[in-house]
Structures are given as structure tokens and as C-alpha cells.
Amino acid sequence: MIPGSFAYHRPASVDEAVALLGQFGEDGKVLAGGHSLIPMMKLRLATPEHLIDINGIGELKGIREEGGQLRIGAAATQADILASDLLANTCPLLPEAAALIADPQIRYCGTLGGNVANGDPGNDMPAVMMALAAIYALRGPGGAREVAARDFYHGTFDTALAENELLTEIRIPTPAPGHGASYQKMKRKVGDYATAAAAAVLSFDGDRCASAAVTLTNVGEAAIFVTEAGDALVGTAVDDTAVAEAAARAMALAAPVSDLRGPAEYRTQMAGEMARRAIRTAAARAKGG
Amino acid sequence: MAEKTKISLTVNGNAVEAEIEPRTLLIHFLREHLNLTGAHIGCETSHCGACTVDLDGRSVKSCTVFAVQANGGELLTVEGMAAGGELHPLQQAFVDQHGLQCGYCTPGMLVRAYRLLQETPNPTDDEIRWGLSGNLCRCTGYQNIVKAVRQAADELGQKEAAE
Ligand SMILES: Cc1cc2nc3c(=O)[nH]c(=O)nc-3n(C[C@H](O)[C@H](O)[C@H](O)COP(=O)(O)OP(=O)(O)OC[C@H]3O[C@@H](n4cnc5c(N)ncnc54)[C@H](O)[C@@H]3O)c2cc1C
Ligand code: FES
Ligand code: FES
């Protein structure tokens, strides 16, 4: 399992990295944590001629709050997310999800940017980003642009990212105090991708749900934003009837394949169960539970 | 033959320079270029943790890191744990508690446990299991590994208190 040959580049700045991406086009690939890319290279499913290692770029690593947004550098690792007091206090959904990804060694390396840019439906962070209404900041030779996470995923390994673009930052509107969120993941063991997983982010106005976002991981060609599930919750007290309706709508959009994690029917049911648990837990947390 | 890249790093306290192909994985560099065969290749697919080494204060699976990425870095492998002919308290604890049978997973377990105790000097059993969850063992059933890490944590804590 030896990867194909490539030339290695370690730019020191975003400008330099973007210039290299522009120069190499489809022959170049960004190397972040490497824990999706290197396994693919070992299997020769990826054979880039140039690797552009972004780990030497300090400006891609920070986690801060600015202008009502949580701004996370694309090269911040899952371990950085778990260690961040800012995120623990303002957006505990992120460390909750990070802790469910892979294992300690992989979390020291794997980056948030790599997780969301990768395009594998098994990745956990895309659904979390959709639930939080995150925005991805991209930089290419033509300049900078922003794409909403909810518009980013087109299919398996098919995203809005152009081959010469770098994801520089993930921008999350700081969730209002009193919001409740949860990520529920069913997996067979530590280091496994989800059989099915769901994220829910809710806010309340008194005892009525004021806003709700529900998303699913690994039960389709990409993460799924279930608009209809949120609609089923808004205006309700998130009682059993509303939760059941939201979960049914989530299951209606789930379209998993049968694989080693189980037959499609089972994985669809588990998507519904994960949605139920995520919604109930998010509601309890919003109410201070 | 692809062009070689020059790297320099510190391995177990010694300065090392080498010319390697960028595609050389860190585990192959350690085992085949430096003859440090302590870190093992188990799965080769980033699952088992037998290849774990410590790079710049992080436990990494060296089958999933390129050696060029360690350029300028500080690396610790199981060969670097014993100091002055004396086993590291973690190594002694694995002996005392029968924390190994075939020993294949042990170098990775030791190096990972080393970093775990740096970050969490007095872990609960749950924290030990969580911290070692990236390392698989097919022999021991893990109980004695957890006991060994517990013993080492206690001993290192006492040493610290005495100093
Ligand atoms: C055993 C194992 C278990 C795992 N389990 C899980 C799991 O349960 N859940 C989960 O979500 N993931 C899991 N992963 C994947 C892991 O989280 C990866 O780290 C992650 O998918 C990719 O992040 P990375 O930083 O390693 O990116 P890389 O592997 O370096 O890159 C992945 C892709 O994204 C591109 N890319 C990376 N960063 C950028 C950027 N800034 N701009 C543009 N393109 C970029 C790369 O070019 C590449 O195509 C697992 C991996 C392993 C090996
Ligand atoms: S050989 Fe590296 S994780 Fe198994
Ligand atoms: S002692 Fe044999 S694999 Fe752990």
C-alpha cells in the first residue's frame, strides 16, 4: 500500500497555497490532516501529482468569534475543536460531534476543513454544518467567495468547491444563548462511520419551538438537510406527535444503500431513531435539561 | 524515480537527516531507513494503532503520515521511552500487570499511553479506555492494559509529588 509519486509543497501562506492550486489545477490536491486523502492515495484511488500541505499556514488554524460568527480556520483539527473553551461555551454541538469522529490519533490530525471539503457522505461534520447554517469561505485564483453549507453538497465527492479553490474558513452564526442542539450517531465501534446519524438545532420562544433544523449523515449521496422536519417542529411544543412527524419526514428523505452496516430499510429506521433522539435531546437542552 | 526531498528532524532526541521520496510513509521511514522497528505495521489502514508514534506532542498513526510531514519535527518512538537503561514507568507497569501477550500492539499502546498521561496525568478508567480507543489489541481483552496505565499514572504522580 504505497501511494503513487508526487511532488510535495508546503506553502507558508494562503496566498502561496492559492497560487500553487491555480498553477497545478487538477493535478494538485490540498493535504490537510491526510486521514481521508492518504488512505485513498494508498489504494491509488487518488493519484495527485502535487500535494499542497496546508499545515504550515498559521492563519488557517485559529478558532475565534467575530461579528456574531464563530470563525474556525479550515486547518483547525478535531482535537483543537475539543480543546476550545469558546466552542464549549457557545456551540457545544461542535465538540459533541468531533468526539464521535474516528479515534484520538485521527482527531489530532483530521481537520474541520478536510472533513467538510472531502465530500464523503460518511463524514460527520457536513450535517452538523448544515444544521448550524454554516458558511464556507473559499479562495481561488479568481478571488474569494462564500458558499452556504446547505448549498455546498451536490453528491458523493461532488461539492461546490472548484479544483483550484482552497477552503479557508468555516463561519457559523453564533447560536443564540438558550438554543439546544444535539448530534446522535449510531456506529458499530469507535472509528466507524455512521450507520445513521442526525443533528438537530432548536430554539424556543416560551414553550413553543421558534426555529428548528434537522440534518442526516450517511444515509444518502451527501448529508441531507430535512427542511420538512424543521417545519414539523416550529410552533409546536416539540411533543411526541411533533417529534414523530419530524422523524417520519426525515426517514422519507433518507436513501441509504445496503452495506456492511445493514440493509437499507434498517438504516432508514435508524436515521429516524437518530433524528428522534437528536430532536428530543436538543429540546431538553434548550429548556435547560 | 521521483525527486527526493531532504528532511531533518529529531528522533528520540537524536538529530536525523535523510533524503526520501515524498511518498515515503513515516512508518516505512522509521522501519526501513532508520531501522527503528519498534512501531509495527498492523492494518496499514489507519485502524489498529500499532504504528503509533509521538510527533510534536501528538500521537499519530505513522502509516497515515508522510515522512516529509515530520520535517523539522520532534519524534518519539517506543525505542526512546526507556532512559538510562531503565524502563519507563509505563513499560514497567505493562510488565507488572501483564499488559501484553503477543506484544504486537504494545509499542503503539505505550506511546499512545505516554501522550495520554502527559495530557491527563490522573485519568479515570473511562478516560484511559477513551484515550486508548485508537489502539486495538487482539490478545489481552484490555483489562490489564488499563491496569498498567493506572499503575504508571499513580507512580508518575508520586514521583511528581516527591520532586
Ligand atoms: C479509521 C478512520 C476512521 C474515520 N472515522 C470517521 C468518522 O467517524 N467520521 C468522520 O467524519 N470522518 C472519519 N474519518 C475521516 C477523518 O475524519 C478525516 O480526517 C477527514 O475526513 C478528512 O479531513 P483531513 O483533514 O484528514 O483531510 P485530508 O484527508 O487531508 O483531505 C480530504 C479531502 O479534502 C480536501 N481538502 C482538505 N482540506 C481542504 C481545504 N482547506 N480546502 C480545499 N480542499 C481541502 C483534500 O484535497 C482531500 O480531497 C475517519 C478516518 C479514518 C482513517
Ligand atoms: S498500521 Fe497504522 S493504524 Fe494499523
Ligand atoms: S498483546 Fe497481542 S495484540 Fe495486544
Describe the structure.
The complex is a heterodimer of chains A (289) and B (163). Chain A starts with 6 loop residues before the first strand and ends with a helix. Chain A has 289 residues and is of the alpha+beta class. In chain A, strands 4-5-10-6-7 form a five-stranded antiparallel beta sheet. A four-stranded antiparallel beta sheet of chain A has the order 11-12-13-14. Chain A has a three-stranded parallel beta sheet with strand order 1-3-2, with helices on one face. Chain A contains twelve helices and 14 strands. Chain B has 163 residues and is an alpha+beta fold. Chain B has two domains: 5-80, Ubiquitin-like (UB roll), CATH 3.10.20; 89-162, DNA polymerase, domain 1. Helix content of chain B is 35%, strand content 15%. Chain B has helices at residues 26-33, 89-96, 106-119, 125-131, 143-162; strands spanning 5-11, 14-20, 52-55, 58-61, 74-76. Chain B has a five-stranded mixed beta sheet with strand order 2-1-5-3-4, with helices on one face. The radius of gyration of chain B is 16 Å and the shape is globular. The N and C termini of chain B lie far apart (54 Å). The relative contact order of chain B is 0.15. The mean pLDDT of chain B is 96. The chains are: A alpha+beta (289), B alpha+beta (163). The A-B interface holds A 1-8, 10, 34-35, 38-39, 41-42, 51, 53, 55, 79, 102-106, 108-109, 190-191 and B 2-3, 5, 21-23, 25, 28, 44-47, 49, 52, 58-61, 64-66, 68-69, 71, 112, 116, 130-134. Flavin-adenine dinucleotide (FAD) binds next to β2, α2, α6, α7 and β10 of chain A.
Layout of secondary structure:
The complex is a heterodimer of chains A (289) and B (163).
Chain A: E1 7-9, H1 14-24, E2 28-31, H2 37-42, E3 50-53, E4 63-66, E5 69-73, H3 78-83, H4 85-90, H5 93-98, H6 104-109, H7 112-117, H8 125-131, E6 135-140, E7 143-148, H9 149-152, E8 153-155, E9 158-159, E10 166-173, E11 180-186, E12 196-205, E13 208-217, E14 224-225, H10 227-233, H11 240-253, H12 264-286
Parallel strand pairs in A: 1-3, 2-3
Antiparallel strand pairs in A: 4-5, 5-10, 6-7, 6-10, 8-9, 11-12, 12-13, 13-14
Helix pairs in contact in A: 10-11, 11-12
Chain B: E1 5-11, E2 14-20, H1 26-33, E3 52-55, E4 58-61, E5 74-76, H2 89-96, H3 106-119, H4 125-131, H5 143-162
Parallel strand pairs in B: 1-5
Antiparallel strand pairs in B: 1-2, 3-4, 3-5
Helix pairs in contact in B: 2-5
Bound molecules: flavin-adenine dinucleotide and FE2/S2 (inorganic) cluster (2 copies).
